[in-house]
């Protein structure tokens, strides 16, 4: 099966700053692929080139068989997008927001059903700007699903969310993957990558410095003789926090 | 088409929920109209008098010079034909025609007595009566100075029916123009800068929606609002103040919308240029405030200092207000104001070039 995302020697500079310095990778259909790295590593630039929002200086990006640079509109029709630090027009309800995006793709959707899928059925009539951070992230995923995308791009989907909302979003990502959609996400949370991703690529200073399954990367590290002081602890503070406050989502 | 119209509908629905925006685009203009419409500004001030000196002799020049020295009078030298047109438009209160045979010196027996003709604007009776008595007074003084006798000049008075122009009649077109300007520049610049900064535009650009469709929807949204605003203002002026737009309401609405398109291009340019919404009010005020005062909104554009008149005469809002006023007050047709419409078109082109220079989707 051909890869659903294929990137070859991709390059992008902003003035003198080389944000992406010739990276190559492939994403197989149906997997959750994670692009990891510290802030400023070039993750967002890479994703935005794949989404058709930025033009690469060199190399190629192919999504679902379409060269993004040559046919950006056609490529946009095939992908779902959740941007980092983006928001929706004000004075639209959650339902109207989903309908607005359906209109942008020229498709009709059952907005209520889609909102139900992301646990926002009860918030359909509420203004989107009044939703909580986690709710807004889920709304943004619902809006990204209106066109039944072949690949869903999530750029730091859990940044700024509380532990409950993060775990809830992880469940949602798994659900989307089970429904057959490939998920391409960026994150700088390693625990997130470890539990969600089938494969990860680690990016630093515009280059990919490692790429494999999370377990394999950990295995390789241990194989190089890495050890860290083992603390006999069956739980961590996050477990305590979740035990005290519960797993259910806070809807405020 | 359907996509663009649906998009327009969605944005209008969202706009209708925004109370602040509704307040500024509908309630504030209404308040301005009602407050200024109730004031009786411009009822009396100076008397504008045109002189057509057909004699051009020392006596007539002395006469005109004396009149010029009287501060109540604003004198212009215009030929009779032009002045009569201006009188009808109430751009002038009086016209004084000095005949070829004018003389203040005593006439010999049998010589015809020169006749001064004074045309007064019947729509401005107060000004005319003041002007009339000044003219009579000057003639009397001059003849006494010459021959210590009563004047031997006849003063013939004629009435010209000018448009009965009340302040509110003058005001309506100005209010229409200024509100269309404010709506177009402020609503687009604010909304789009906020959308730009918060990543809304980027998010929409990540969909296959064609950018021009999004822009057309934004323009249509404002045109619908502007139409609503203009109709409400005209409605209030007609119902509350008895204003009668002589040239017809459709022409007024149409010209207002042309003005709206012009100012929208400037709004888009501003939205493209500004990085944050804090920069918008400063630049928007810089653009709109001079026009607010110099373009004939609340008072005549001739109030602008002479030095800057060549500039203020060519400001977009001046051109728009002139056209609206010609239609509303003088009953001009669209063809009559074609030069103004051409001016609006040229400004729209300038605005459009600025907009495509600054409003770049690929930068958002």
Q: How big is the Rg of chain A?
A: 19 Å
Overall helicity of chain A: 25-40%
* Range of helix content of chain B: 55-70%
Strand content of chain B: 5-15%
Tell me the quaternary state.
heterodimer
> What class, by secondary structure content of chain A?
alpha/beta
Note the run of SSEs of chain B as H and E: HHEHEHEEHEHHHHHHHH
Shape of chain A: globular
Which chain pair has the greatest contact?
Answer: A-B, 27 and 25 residues
The ordered string of helix (H) and strand (E) elements of chain A is: EEEHEEHEHHHEHEHEEHH
Q: Would you write up a description of this structure?
A:
The complex is a heterodimer of chains A (252) and B (364). The model of chain A has no long low-confidence stretch (mean pLDDT 91). Chain A is α/β, with parallel strands linked by helices and 252 residues long. Chain A has helices spanning 43-50, 72-78, 94-105, 111-117, 133-144, 163-178, 190-196, 214-223, 237-245, and strands at residues 5-14, 17-27, 32-36, 58-63, 66-67, 79-82, 151-155, 182-187, 199-204, 207-212. In chain A, helix 3 (94-105) crosses helix 4. In chain B, strands 2-1-3-4-5 form a five-stranded mixed β-sheet, with helices on both faces. Classes of the chains: A alpha/beta (252), B alpha/beta (364).
Topology of helices and strands:
The complex is a heterodimer of chains A (252) and B (364).
Chain A: E1 5-14, E2 17-27, E3 32-36, H1 43-50, E4 58-63, E5 66-67, H2 72-78, E6 79-82, H3 94-105, H4 111-117, H5 133-144, E7 151-155, H6 163-178, E8 182-187, H7 190-196, E9 199-204, E10 207-212, H8 214-223, H9 237-245
Helix pairs in contact in A: 3-4, 3-5, 5-6
Chain B: H1 2-17, H2 19-38, E1 47-53, H3 58-68, E2 73-77, H4 80-88, E3 94-98, E4 115-121, H5 125-147, E5 154-160, H6 167-197, H7 200-205, H8 211-241, H9 249-273, H10 279-294, H11 309-312, H12 316-330, H13 338-358
Parallel strand pairs in B: 1-2, 1-3, 4-5
Antiparallel strand pairs in B: 3-4
Helix pairs in contact in B: 1-8, 2-6, 2-8, 6-8, 6-9, 6-10, 6-12, 8-9, 9-12, 9-13, 12-13
